[in-house]
Design a protein that fits this description.
The complex is a heterodimer of chains A (338) and B (452).
Chain A (H helix, E strand, L loop, with lengths): L2 H33 L3 H11 L3 H18 L1 H10 L1 H20 L6 H31 L19 H25 L3 H31 L11 H19 L3 H23 L2 E3 L9 E2 L7 H28 L14
Antiparallel strand pairs in A: 1-2
Helix pairs in contact in A: 1-2, 1-3, 1-6, 1-7, 1-10, 1-11, 3-4, 5-6, 6-7, 7-8, 7-10, 8-9, 9-10
Chain B lengths: L2 H40 L2 H35 L1 H35 L6 H30 L4 E4 L2 E4 L2 H5 L2 H31 L4 H36 L1 H7 L11 E8 L4 E8 L2 H7 L9 H12 L8 H29 L9 H9 L2 H16 L4 E3 L3 E2 L10 H30 L8 H4 L1
Antiparallel strand pairs in B: 1-2, 3-4, 5-6
Helix pairs in contact in B: 1-2, 1-4, 1-6, 1-13, 1-14, 2-3, 2-7, 2-14, 3-4, 4-6, 6-7, 6-12, 6-13, 7-8, 7-11, 8-11, 11-13
Classes of the chains: A mainly alpha (338), B mainly alpha (452).
């Protein structure tokens, strides 16, 4: 396998880690105002992701950095092209990060409500915008011969991509609810299970619609060679079992199935793109792929060695940190940290 | 305003704000880890109190450093896509390595540190504190490796109009980073020392928990002295390196229009950039030669000669950086740094051995305001480092004007600039208010919020 393919796979892995981990973080943030009735409950909800959200967010930063290192033209085209959407997302992520840390430092309930709103917006908006972005990646955008997209924000807000955004929001909400059902106690678990099922229904309907539309509007599922059909089927099966597991009260399995849904869906997107990364709608020849967008073999070799050493180390200590904080969070101000 | 100016302004504002928080993270993470080490070794509860107290200040500061850092990861692609294309082969690698080696480490172990007081063993918890400190400083190292290439390109080639990496190890041991990283690290240590001294002074003036704040003060004074003395010394050698490698930056920092031998150091000057002369200057003879070469007779080239040399080397154009900005930035940095050395030295002497710092009430009152000094020094230090490179974004290889995204309209940049500026300002005000509130809080009540 050549270095360019290895790096395509590595970037895919980073996005899988990002969507899987930040997926439930975003979901928890989205559910915060709805599930937590009392302040202690809201604190407990935030505390379920308290020790890990920052480490989870690094998956996104690493994905960005890795793209810069391995496919700099993708980094340049994507972030200059999706400028306003990205700026908006950064604002949301800034608010969210600060809110986690500062919320409990204010005694005033009104101030805490404002921070809760920051967490909600800071979670819902990035989920939506990443979905919209992925929708546009699958559909392609008007990239010219010089690898630039000039269209601005409005063409990106097309119905197909907005549906993609809603799929992300609903899947992450379901994922977050499943996570909360495993990480909270008492009344919160009951509420989380209920909303997990409701969001599963919404997510399933939206996802089916999105996949059907994808079939007709893009070549992600149908192009010859590597395509997204098999992972899409696996994602669909995983998603269907989520509802079954929630109904039968097997919440650990529901969470695993939900996670697999996100993993396979991400694989579907990247397998469907491969070997392209950014599809041009103007001319297939203008698309950015793993060769014309890549760094030199020297840089890719250096980065392969670095990633080969450090990705496993990172995985070991992140998994360990989840083990350390594996207990359910009690709704008890004495034991809550955030 | 045109897109270029807006993009430069956006980078300046977001980066200066980011670096308001970063150096304190670098220094205070080490300070807190040292306190916790002392606690774990001796079992002295006062050191646990200190660890938690200064740890809280650390976390308030850390949060903003982290979120403003997210923007840094993406804004090269947003506003500087031509730079990203030209430099991606070289610049992306240290950024990705920074994320892999440092971001994961600091973010995972900060979570462990915050939430693990009752879950982890004492020693594991201490290890988490050190891993946060090491992670933060590794992060600084890699981003400075990236920045050092922009200051002093090494180990590269040029292929099809792109810079390509040819020697990864040359990139890492870039002589520039060997000055710049210790300079930034010691600046962070100095800043942590001054912030802790400032808050300790506030408590000592009110006789709060002297058993906690006297040792805090003493340790912080040592920190501040080591940091300020080293940051100045390293800065001196860094300056000499820059005289060789970026002579225009240093000539601008001295407002030296004509070549001089021996060269005098202007303490102040009236700078007329249009006429390319100083209307007045107060000069100490020979000192600039000393600063440049460690002797009092060396020739230091002036801006006009250097401009002619640059034209001969790179072609027509203006290669003189903003002179007044660099001249005054340099003086603010150096004056603040010198004052810091004096204050830190007094702090160490007056709190050492049997000396009781509480009696020096005038000095303690002055120290309440002293934390402003390191903030001024680091801010203007970076203004000098970055604007002194003008017109280059990558020294000698790419000009700033060739680096921006052609497809982003000026109003997009203006809009995001306004939003980031307002957001950063609000968050900075919130962070400083919270920091001051917690820094002044009574250490006996566990949480000021609970006390309200």
């Amino acid at each position: 396998m050549d270095l360019n393919t290895i790096w395509f796979i590595l970037v895919t892995v980073l996005f899988i880690g990002f969507f899987f981990l930040e997926g439930f973080d975003y979901g928890v943030g989205i559910l915060l105002p709805f599930l937590g009735k009392k302040d202690e409950e809201r604190r407990a909800i935030i505390n379920t992701i308290g020790p890990v959200w920052d480490g989870n967010e690094v998956w996104m930063l690493t994905a960005g950095g890795a793209m810069f290192a391995s496919f700099p033209h993708v980094y340049a085209t994507l972030f200059s092209g999706f400028y306003l959407a990205l700026a908006l997302m950064l604002v949301a992520l800034i608010l969210r990060g600060v809110a986690f840390e500062y919320r409990q430092k204010y005694a005033d309930p009104a101030a805490r409500k404002r921070w809760d709103l920051a967490i909600f917006i800071g979670s819902a908006l990035p989920a939506l915008l990443w979905g919209v972005a992925v929708g546009n990646l699958m559909r392609g955008v008007a990239i010219d011969a010089d690898m630039y997209y000039w269209g601005g924000l409005l063409p990106l807000l097309n119905p197909y991509s907005i549906l993609g955004g809603l799929v992300f929001v609903s899947l992450f909400t379901m994922h977050g609810a499943n996570y909360l059902a495993l990480k909270t106690e008492g009344e919160l678990v009951t509420r989380a299970k209920k909303i997990a099922f409701q969001s599963w229904i919404v997510a399933t309907v939206l996802t089916v619609a999105f996949v059907v539309w994808t079939f007709f509007a893009t070549d992600i599922l149908t192009k010859p060679g590597v395509n997204g059909l098999i992972p899409a089927s696996l994602a669909a099966i995983a998603l269907l079992t989520v509802g079954w597991f929630i109904r039968t009260g097997k919440h650990g399995r529901a969470f695993v199935s939900g996670s697999l849904t996100i993993v396979f869906a991400t694989v579907m997107v990247f397998a469907g793109l491969f070997p392209r990364i950014l599809i041009s709608t103007l001319d297939p020849a203008y698309s950015l792929d793993i060769w014309n967008a890549a760094s030199t073999p020297y840089t890719l070799t250096v980065m392969t060695i670095v990633a080969g050493i450090f990705v496993p180390i990172v995985l070991v200590y992140q998994v360990w940190s989840y083990r350390v904080f594996r207990k359910r969070v009690k709704v008890d101000p004495k034991t809550l940290v955030y | 305003m045109d897109a270029l100016l807006l993009a430069r302004l956006q980078f300046a504002i977001t980066t200066i704000y980011h670096f308001f928080f970063v150096p304190l993270t670098l220094g205070l993470s080490i300070f807190v880890a040292l306190l916790e080490t002392k606690y774990v070794r001796t079992g002295d509860e006062n050191y646990k109190k200190m660890t938690k107290f200064w740890g809280t200040i650390f976390l308030i500061n850390f949060a903003i450093g982290v979120v403003t850092g997210i923007v840094q990861e993406f804004q090269f692609g947003m506003n500087w896509s031509e730079y990203s294309r030209f430099m991606g082969d070289i610049f992306g690698a240290p950024l990705a390595i920074e994320a892999l080696l440092a971001f994961y480490m600091e973010s995972t172990f900060i979570g462990m540190w915050i939430f693990g007081w009752n879950t982890l063993s004492k020693k594991t918890h201490l290890a988490a504190a050190w891993l946060v400190a090491i992670g933060s400083n590794i992060s600084a190292l890699w981003i400075l490796i990236a920045n050092s290439f922009m200051q002093n390109p090494v180990g590269y080639g040029l292929e099809d109009g792109r810079a390509t990496m040819q020697d990864f190890f040359a990139l890492i041991i870039n002589p520039n980073v060997l000055y710049q990283f210790p300079h930034v690290l010691t600046a962070g240590i100095a800043m942590a020392g001054f912030v802790v001294m400032g808050f300790s002074a506030w408590h000592l003036l009110r006789k709060h928990e002297v058993a906690v704040f006297r040792p805090s003060f003493h340790l912080a004074a040592i920190f501040a002295l080591i940091g300020s003395a080293l940051v100045g010394t390293i800065g001196h050698f860094q300056g000499q390196f820059l005289v060789q490698h970026q002579p225009l930056k240093m000539a601008a920092a001295e407002a030296l229009w004509e070549t001089e031998q021996p060269a005098g150091f202007s303490i102040i000057a009236g700078i007329d950039e249009g006429a390319q002369e100083n209307s007045f200057e107060f000069k100490v003879p020979g000192v600039l030669s000393f600063l440049s070469y460690n002797n009092f007779t060396g020739e230091v080239k002036g801006l006009k000669d250097l401009q002619s040399e640059a034209v001969a080397q790179y072609g027509e154009g203006n290669y003189i950086p903003p002179v007044a900005l660099n001249f005054w930035s340099f003086r603010v940095m150096v004056s603040a740094g010198s004052l810091m050395v004096i204050l830190a030295l007094l702090g160490v002497i007056w709190s050492a051995g049997k000396n009781v710092i509480d009696k020096r009430r005038g000095f303690l009152k002055a120290l309440l305001f002293a934390p402003i000094l390191p903030y001024l020094a680091v801010t203007f230090g970076w203004v000098l480092a970055e604007t002194g490179r003008w017109p280059w974004i990558v020294f000698g290889l790419q000009k700033v004007e060739d680096a921006i995204s052609p497809n982003v309209p000026a109003w997009n940049i203006a809009l995001s600039l306004i939003i980031f500026f307002v957001l950063y300002t609000v968050l900075t005000v919130i962070a400083f208010k919270l920091g001051i509130k917690y820094g002044k809080s009574d250490i006996r009540t566990k949480d000021p919020v609970a006390a309200e």
